[in-house]
Amino acid sequence: MRKTALQILLLLTLAWSQASRAADASAPIMLVASPELQDQLFGAAVLVVTPLSDGSHAGFIVNHPTQITLAALYPDHAPSRKVVDPVYLGGPVTPNIIFALVRAENSPGGSSVELMPGLYAAFEEPVVDGIIEARPDAARFVAGFVLWEPGELEREIELGAWYVMEPDAKVLTRSPSGLWEDLLRRLQRSEGMLNVRNSAP
Prior knowledge:
Blueprint: H1 2-8, H2 10-22, E1 29-33, E2 46-51, E3 57-61, E4 65-69, H3 70-73, H4 78-81, E5 86-89, E6 93-103, E7 113-116, E8 119-122, H5 125-134, E9 139-148, H6 152-158, E10 162-165, H7 179-199
């Protein structure tokens, strides 16, 4: 099943990898959903996002765990049975593909995409399996991803759907429980302090 899905995605993932390398390395961001964003999938979501060279954006939700484990998906793969954390819902695009979001100084291999400094997304089966076997504690395993058409994310930000944060690969080391609330409080506190300074005589 994984191989079939990866074959279907071949053109998309190759284009994504090439575009990501061409994109401005300073442009990756994190998104924190606004409380007003009442959506079953994106409500209370935290995402890591990278721009593509055609003006579109790709990213992953990192704080929505599912009830599925790697052991349930790959019962014949012994290392998968040792991963306690659940699989996360990364987004609605290709939810049958498991991506490994891994903190690393260098690419974990293959056509892995650098989402932001120190954070890569691996999608090829041998690379993902290698991460499961060698360093699962440095990774978060997610199903699917999010893709915005050119200009779409900018419009959503302008409409107030998202708060924007500087990229931080350490977000993967944070427990998903309470992550959105904590980041939201931090952003609102910073926004409040900015408003106070701007209104000062």
